[in-house]
Amino acid sequence: MADFEELYRELGRRIRQARERNSEGLSQDALAKQLGISRASVVNIEAGRQRAPLHLLWQIAQLLETDLTSLIPRNEELLAPAIHERIDREMMKKIEELAGGDPGTIKLMTGLASMLIGTIEKPHSGRKANEQRKPRK
């Protein structure tokens, strides 16, 4: 079964990126006014909390001068929720910046980061580093 929460989060992320890249630099408020909806609705759509109907998504794509299909993620582009849980928000934001919003690159970098997180050992608290320990007698 598909993870619809992840689908709408990714859709919202893509809408936000398209809005920010738009030549007119539309604000959430300006987009909302052109769509005839509240700014809160735009905020919630971009956050993936509100499920916009197809006709509204079509209007959003038109106003942002992009193809609707570029806003809708393909099944293989959706990241597994377990990966998001292992990667903190700050790292995810950095990955998105470095990838320039490209879903394939984001997926690749997120997968690599997830694998690296599992291999990096954090220092144990309460233990001294080797150079701080007293030599044995």
Characterise this structure.
By secondary structure, this protein is an all-alpha fold. The chain has two domains: 1-73, lambda repressor-like DNA-binding domains (434 Repressor (Amino-terminal Domain)); 79-121, no CATH class. 61% of the residues lie in helices and 0% in strands. It is built from eight helices and no strands. Helix 1 packs across helix 3. The chain is elongated and about 80 Å long. The model is unreliable at 121-125 (pLDDT under 50).
List the helices and strands and how they pair.
Elements: H1 4-21, H2 28-35, H3 39-47, H4 54-63, H5 68-71, H6 81-86, H7 89-99, H8 103-119
Which descriptors would you attach to this protein?
single chain, 137 residues, mainly alpha, 434 Repressor (Amino-terminal Domain), 2 domains, 8 helices, 61% helix
Describe this structure in a few short sentences:
By secondary structure, this protein is an all-alpha fold. It is built from 8 helices and no strands.
Mean pLDDT equals: 80
Query: What is the CATH class designation of the largest domain?
Result: Mainly Alpha
Distance between the termini: 62 Å
Gyration radius, in Å? 20 Å
For the record, the CATH architecture of the largest domain stands as: Orthogonal Bundle
Briefly note the CATH topology name of the largest domain: 434 Repressor (Amino-terminal Domain)
Helix and strand element order: HHHHHHHH
> Helix share of residues?
55-70%
Number of strands: 0
